Amino acid sequence: MTASSPGPGCLEVDTPGAVYVAGIIAFLLLVGPHLVIFNIINASTLPKFTAVGVGVGLCLVLTGMFSFPRRDTSLKLYLSRPGSLLLAIYLFYLIYAVCSLTWAVNPQLALANIAKNGLAYAILPIVILFGLSNAQFLLIMKGLALGAASCGLVALLLWVSGHTPDITFAAPAWSFLNRNFLASYCMIAFPASVVLWMRAQGRGGKWLYGGATLCLLLFIFHSFSRASWLAVLTEITLLGVFVFRQLKKSKRGLHPLVKRGPEFLIFALVFFAGTFINDGRFESRLKEISPRIEDALPMQENTADTTGENSTGGSFQTRLKYWQNILVMARDNLPLGVAEGNFQVLYPKYDGAVYPTRFNTIKTNLRYAHNEYLEIVTELGVGGLFILLGLLGVFLHNLMDFIRHDEDRLTSLIRFAGIAGIVGVIVNTLASSVLNWPLHNFALACLCCFALPRRSSDIKIFRPWRLCGPLVTLTGAACVLLVLVHFKDRLQFERQFQTCRQLYNEGFTNEAMHNLEDVCERVPLDQRANQQYAHVLCMNGEFEKSLRYSGRIAEVYPYDFRNNFNVGLACAQTGDREGAIAAFERCLTVVRDIQTSLKLAVLLRDSDMERSDRLLASVCEREEAPALAYILKAENEILQNQRKKSAKTLLEGWRHFPGNAEIKKTFNDFGFTTQARQE
Asked: Where are the beta strands (DSSP E) in 387-546?
């Protein structure tokens, strides 16, 4: 097969493999957002998941080699300077991340993240290997824009029709965990949708992509995701600059813009009308904007709170606090980092390094840094810094190349979609962690491919392989099948786990325990399931069995408060005093919880009475201290023959809890009745 001659500033490729690649990528972008995709691939099912996928893929490839006719196909390797650098960064990430398994606290979680990110960005070498034409890039853009817009449309329809109380719980948002992540995905697809709308010629294309753009903007507005709002405003500003630049070069001046004026006017009016939709279907939404924006007022220091449970202020104020904690975490773990995916494992240790936050209390935990740059540097250390600098260099090179070179209209539109989308991601990730989601990474990889310069001098033609198209088709089919099978298993696990929690909350303890045990045996390293089951077992007095389940994840999540509390409680009840002390001490490095402090103080009486006294004194100084704290402190003082001091402690407890039966009983037991009357 002979290659077509590309025109100036435009890469046209006629290899069948490129057509197959573009079709598969577009299909994944169109269907992927509607799948219930869970962020973390469960580590315990990953080996089986990989083995089955490789086996199915090999069978399909072998079948294809004997089923399809042999034909000579050309591969066009597109080696521009930024393309080569992107490949180098991708390979460096894979090598460095795999090496980080050796020092990772939780290797299973690291392995899952490497697999997730490696697959998401595998599009880079594939696109560079096959070399796609502008027509094929447009096909990918259609999949990206329509996939995101259809998600936004379904979410809005469910919300407006009253089938869901809040747009957060609309079905498409489940794929991204919450509306903020879906809004950020819509933000990534927004420039592609605008470009498709701009180049649409027929009436049907204009209405289709104009409607897609409208759905994206309406969902982003109603999500109230401030990071996505700022990113879209930046993209719209870039769009204005791009249009002005194109009109300046055009001999027709403003004529094309004036010709489409009614179209833009209808779009603006419909968008304005759509902003008034809320829970009551058609009441004003604008009145809610002011209190939402007030949430981002400047941070006010509140050093009195030491637990993070009573932190006040908006989410942005809180993020400023834990970003300072993360900076300490990144500094302490240089130069190697904490390893890929291990941020959530080690952050609890640093939660109060500078400021306590509300994210590391007993009921919550910070899984992501909500700042991609801090998270990458924290996890990959100096290697992560090199990755960020390399990506910044590629982006600046693409931007300068776009500004300097005059390209045909279609190529410039495609490159603009890539560059504007990347700028939006740069802005959005300053205050979010959207790149922990596979689909966001996959979409960003597409944007990087759009933004690459395409000139005929960058093309190298090779003819070493055969069956490129069939092999790519079969490999893509195997990957899709593999993903669907895994998502089916994961969805089944989620449903069973939620059923267990519902049964337990409704009082059906035996049924809940039976189902939880089955879940934990099927997914041995799932953090939530083991925590829940260990807690239920402790509440039912089965402490030895509880230790078996909580101990499973104690090593891979060493600073998880809830799991350590379960371990400490079970150890204390089974006579393992040293194990209980160690577990409760790990709890207190994470959260200064009152109940944990009291349990540890009792355990330390025989070995370290001085520290036991300090713990009880610190609890009694807190406003929320319970009556039990004063009783235990008085008992310590009795054990040290400090009867007068013990009586004062009980009197102080009586002033805080007048009429408390337990304090009164302790008075009588210690023989303080006469002394109390005298005082």
From this structure: 459-462
User: Cα–Cα distance between 246 and 223 in angstroms, integer?
Assistant: 33
Of 158, 90, 167, the residue nearest 125 (C-alpha): 90
The answer to whether 515 and 500 are in contact (CB under 8 A) is: yes
* Contact call for residues 527 and 494 (beta carbons, < 8 A): no
pLDDT of residue 190: 95
- Contact yes or no for 188/247 (Cβ under 8 A): no
Residue 445: band (very low, low, confident or very high) from pLDDT cuts 50, 70, 90 = very high
pLDDT band at 595 (very low <50, low <70, confident <90, very high): confident
Buried/exposed 369-408: b ≥16 CB within 10 Å, e otherwise: bbbbebbbbbbbbebbbebbebbeebbebbeebbeeeebe
Greatest mean pLDDT among 72-81, 276-285, 313-322: 313-322
Measured in residues, the chain has a length of 679
**Under a CB-based contact definition with an 8 Å cutoff, are residues 511 and 504 in contact?**
no
What SS3 class is residue 356?
coil
Angle between helices 561-574 and 577-590 (to 10 degrees): 160
Distance of CA 183 to CAs 292, 428, 444, 521, Å? 16, 10, 15, 36
Least confident of 119-123, 382-386, 511-515, 522-526: 522-526
How large is the average pLDDT for residues 421-427?
94
Query: Residue 351 and residue 373: Cα distance in Å, rounded?
Result: 18
Q: Are 137 and 19 in contact (CB under 8 A)?
A: no
C-alpha–C-alpha distance, residues 309 and 356, integer Å: 9
Amino acid in the structure at residue 231: A
The larger pLDDT score, comparing residue 186 to residue 110, is at 186
pLDDT at residue 294 tops 60: no
